[in-house]
Amino acid sequence: MQVLDFEQSISELETKIEELRHLSDGGRVNIADEIAKLQVKVEKQLHQVYDKLTPAQKVQVARHPDRPHCLDYIKALVEDFTPLAGDRLFADDQAIIGGLGRFSGQPCVIIGQERGHDTESRIKHNFGMAKPEGYRKAQRLMDMANRFRLPVITLVDTAGAFPGVDAEARGQAEAIARSIEKCLNINVPLIACVIGEGGSGGAIAIAAGDRVLMLEHAIYSVISPEGCASILWRSASQAADAAAALRLTAQDLEQLGIIDQIIPEPLGGAHRNREEMIARVGNAIGEALEELSRYDAKTLLNNRREKYLAMGKKSVS
Fold this sequence. Notes:
Elements: H1 8-21, H2 31-50, H3 55-62, H4 70-77, E1 78-83, E2 96-103, E3 106-113, H5 119-124, H6 132-147, E4 152-158, H7 165-169, H8 172-185, E5 190-199, H9 200-204, E6 211-215, E7 219-221, H10 225-232, H11 239-246, H12 250-256, E8 261-263, H13 274-292, H14 297-309
Parallel strand pairs: 3-4, 4-5, 5-6, 5-7, 6-8
Antiparallel strand pairs: 1-2, 2-3
């Protein structure tokens, strides 16, 4: 597992624990007691570190390559998942995964951004950065959900939309704008969950839902800290200052009224207990689905409209 710079002391203790577990000394030392003592120290340090993460450190945690990604959640939480490919206009964008499945027995449409876990899969999924055809695929799936009265679940995890020349030539901005518009106008429940990095319009394009959930150490912002620092200070070295100024943490965004619920992560972050994190996300989405299923289409649209018109009006103490 990749060790973040502020986790070095914790990693050293964990290494000692692993060494003790593989040690055979003929019973001269009670290894179990030593391991237990070190484990207590690890948990204590994890609490000390993760209870006081800075925004810049949360950015590192949100980008940790071992966090569960879109396909991990789909495999664990969605039964009979049938992926649907292509936007029927240009191509299939593997940065956005979408299809039909059953969440806790409820037929639904699932859309998410997949970053990949290794070099091969990251290249295949373009590091989760979608091109116009990806957002048009998302629109097509939302139209289908609307037609068949199926709720939509989106899993947000991207550094942003792909900024390449070919994407711009095919109408990247228009595709994102249309995707946001589609989110706001469908007549079925839409639950968005920011599972890692929610970057720029590339994230908002599938996140303008009735309920926006966010993992405790995820981030959600109009621009990356590095991009913001490059614009304001002409240097990406000021990224830590930019992260603090952007108010991109789940705690800040809940206070600002941008998101609706924070999903707590296991001690030490989602990457330390993937199964537990996936289960918690599943429970939170299930509760949101149960609540939203009580509303008819007109009520959903009215509530969604009021939700987004009210953003920015909430005062921050």
